[in-house]
Amino acid sequence: MTYYAECRILALTAALAGTMTSLALAQPQPQPAPPKVEGAWMNTSLSPDERADLAIAQMTLDEKIQLVHGVGGRASTAPRSNGGVGMVAGIARLGLPDLQMADSAVGVRAAAERGRYSTLLPSNIGEAATWDPKLAFAYGKLIGRELRDQMYNVSLGGGVDITREPRNGRNFEYLGEDPVLAGKMVAQWIRGLQSQNVIGDVKHYAFNDQETGRSIGNVKLGKRTMRETDLLAFEIAVKEGQPGMVMCSYNKLNGDWACENAYLLDTLLKKTWGFPGFVISDWGGTHSTAKAALAGLDNEEPDFKFFGDALKAAVTNGEVPIERLNDMVHRIVRTEFALGIVDSPPHGRVVDPFGGAEISQRIAERGSVLLKNERGQLPLNGSGIQSIAVIGAHADTGVLSGGGSAQVDAPGTEQSRFGGAPVWFPSSPLEAIRSHAPKAKVEFNDGADPAAAAALAKAAEIAIVFVNQPTSEGRDAPTLALPYKQDELVSAVAAANPRTIVVLETGGPVAMPWIGRVSAALEIWYPGIRGAQAAANILFGDVNPSAKLPVTFPRSDSDLPHPEIPGIALMPKQPPFVRMPDFDIDYTEGLKVGYKWFDAESIEPLFPFGYGLSYTTFAYSGLKASFDGVTFTVANTGQRDGEEIVEVYAGLPAPAGEPPKRLVAWDKVALAAGESKTVTLALDPKFLSIFDERKDEWELLPGEYKIFVGGSSRKTPLTAVVRH
Ligand code: GLC
User: Fold this and answer.
1) Which of 126, 496, 649, 663 is deepest in the core (most CB within 10 A)?
2) Where along the chain do the CATH 2.60.40.10 domains lie?
3) Residues in Cβ contact with 498 at an 8 Å cutoff, skipping those fewer than 6 apart
């Protein structure tokens, strides 16, 4: 009996006997790596494709079917599960291991289930705010290392759906609104992770840009808009990151479910981009057998409703050619060889919490964006301050993390529940602030009563208010406004003390009606296991902030392309919570995603894409531009060393019909106080092109291109015109 049949019986038995809970408590017993087997396919001098063909030639039909679907991730249905969210049964006689899958966007999930520890890294949007591909590589490498430590060989992370919708509950898992920045950052995340011999993925392919109605909504977009926005991020990710897997998304795209959309999965991903790996469905995102298989889906997750017996029957009756099944299996097995999970299986290791915390803190320090700093309010002089009021929920005990399948379990806790309460991590801003101002009187108020908080602030020299916006997979933020009446709290504190500093722990952009009344503001996103220490190091000047926004912060919902989230009005407001009706998500803004919308519509954002302050200042001069690249000088004109993210934007010729500018290149330049450097950046013609739908290819138009260079999308002191 194949393992999959064994699991199916277990699942049916458990379901019938209603003993899922007792079975779920059964301790999963992950198998050690399969015994080394002899066989031509184990010859490491052959290519992954040659080895896959040799292995497939040994397989029975049942064994092939077994590889193209999950068996669930819980011990209840998959006794060999490692406790992750998914598992594909391997073929021990051929030396092909079980695929043990764990969610791992910002750290390895479900560690608590097996009494493990995982490092919580800063949210991916905070990683994006570093604009540093080397840090993205380090981020992915750490997760890959901890996946192997915990005996996983497949990662479910790499989210890159761009921020079309600033209220999307999963923006914390993604890399912002620009496809070039997001694509290049996730590509390095994937490379770092896969460097640890773990199969990486990129998700959710594609246009799962909101959580409202994510498994019902039909996204409607034209091909040019698709290729120049979300799909450009995926194209860069696939070509530069070379993920072993792509996870197709829940939503429909132009009428077809993403996981059976032949244009997305076959025409574009496999034929045009040459993707050699395999497509897995999002959990429950498969909707058919033959249509999905023929459209390019290679593996159903988490179980086998469509790709188990139903697929075997479809192959047997010829509805799905055996060649397609062989291709599905080939893509999976060649990926296993290519990424080393057969030749170098994980052996388990104690996770290194200290090493992980250090990397997490470094990324948090470089991903926190200084938004406002009036009259040099920051950095604080820890030795000179007499009294500080620290205000806001949980600033005494912890920092916030993101919810859903990306949720990491906090040390010493039971496993967090999907859709449960926000999880706070034991990194105390209050303690971190006290450590920087040992002589000061530092008192805490939880912010529940604005008047009490204001009274404490009035009596203190400085007030630091921590505001938070819990977000999660499965739901969007209803508006950009901070929840729990925190705007009232900030306003009350600011009225009581003009030296009020706001520290924001949010999943993405939020409105700040009080921004004109506070003296400083620092966005630390969900800052990871050492988030408090990172924030305090910035507040007290041990670290000079260098991060820049990967998303636009709008002033209000009314400034957005969709003042209300598409479909949110269709959601049932009270029980019985019936299924939402089918609905279209018509992204009528088209190419104008994020800053491109604000530029094209001449709307002033609260804080623009690419914006971020430093404790020093920078000046730009001497731009020389050609169609191939730019050279300019950037100088540190302030009193302290710093790093400047220099940004290059291009405006295409008017006939292109494009938004006013798009990001085409950037770099991060370290400069000592008073130092100048000449920066030379090449321009990738792809990023200066439009996608011509008629020709179905990228095209560089003739004409005049404007070049903008500076430290923010809305502060580009250097401009030039180049011709093509
Ligand atoms: C979820 C998510 C996906 C995750 C998967 C397994 O619904 O959309 O990102 O990897 O299911 O948890």
Assistant:
1) 126
2) 616-723
3) 519
H or E element, residue 293? helix 290-295
User: Which residue intervals of the chain bear CATH 3.20.20.300?
Assistant: 47-102+247-338
Q: Which two tokens stand for residue 444?
A: 């805490």
Q: Is the CB of 203 under 6 A from ligand 1?
A: yes
Q: Is 623 in the pocket of ligand 1 (CB under 6 A)?
A: no
482: left (phi over 0), alpha (psi -120 to 50) or beta: beta
Taking Cα atoms as reference points, which of 522, 549, 550, 525 lies closest to residue 538? 522
pLDDT in tens, 662-704: 999 999 999 999 999 999 999 999 999 999 999 999 999 999 9
Q: Is the CB of residue 357 less than 8 Å from the CB of residue 121?
A: no
User: Of all protein residues, whose CA lies closest to atom 7 belonging to ligand 1?
Assistant: 283
Q: How far apart are CA 289 and CA 143, in angstroms?
A: 33
Instruction: Report whether pLDDT(9) > 80.
Output: no
Catalytic residue of the set 149, 178, 209, 282: 282
* Residue the block writes with tokens 């988490």: 302
Element (H, E) at 362: helix 353-367
* 363-558 placed in CATH 3.40.50.1700: yes
More confident position, 7 or 304: 304
> For the chain, what is the radius of gyration of the CA atoms?
26
Does the pLDDT value for residue 35 go beyond 90?
A: no
Best residue among 249, 473, 475, 476 to mutate for probing ligand 1, ranked by most atoms within 8 Å of CB = 473
Q: Which two tokens stand for residue 319?
A: 């509805």
Spatial distance between the Cα atoms of 87 and 73, rounded to a whole number of angstroms: 5
Q: What's the confidence (pLDDT) of residue 457?
A: 98
Distance between terminal CA atoms of the chain? 65
Fold of 47-102+247-338: TIM Barrel (3.20.20)
pLDDT of residue 78: 80
CATH 3.40.50.1700 in the chain, residue ranges: 363-558
pLDDT-based confidence at 26, cuts 50/70/90?
very low
Contact 299, 325 (CB under 8 A): no
SS (H, E, C) 568-593: HHHCCCCCCCCCCCCCEEECCCCCCC
Q: Is 309 a catalytic residue?
A: no
How far, in Å, CA of 356 to CA of 121, rounded? Answer: 8
Average pLDDT over the chain reads 94
Q: Which CATH superfamily is domain 616-723 in?
A: Immunoglobulins (2.60.40.10)
497 C-alpha vs ligand 1 centroid, how far in Å?
44
Residue in 87, 78, 73 with CA at minimum distance from that of residue 9: 78
Q: Which residues pair with 663 in a beta bridge?
A: 649
Per-residue pLDDT tens digits for 310-356: 999 999 999 999 999 999 999 999 999 999 999 999 988 999 999 99
- Residue 214, phi then psi, degrees to nearest 5: -60, -30
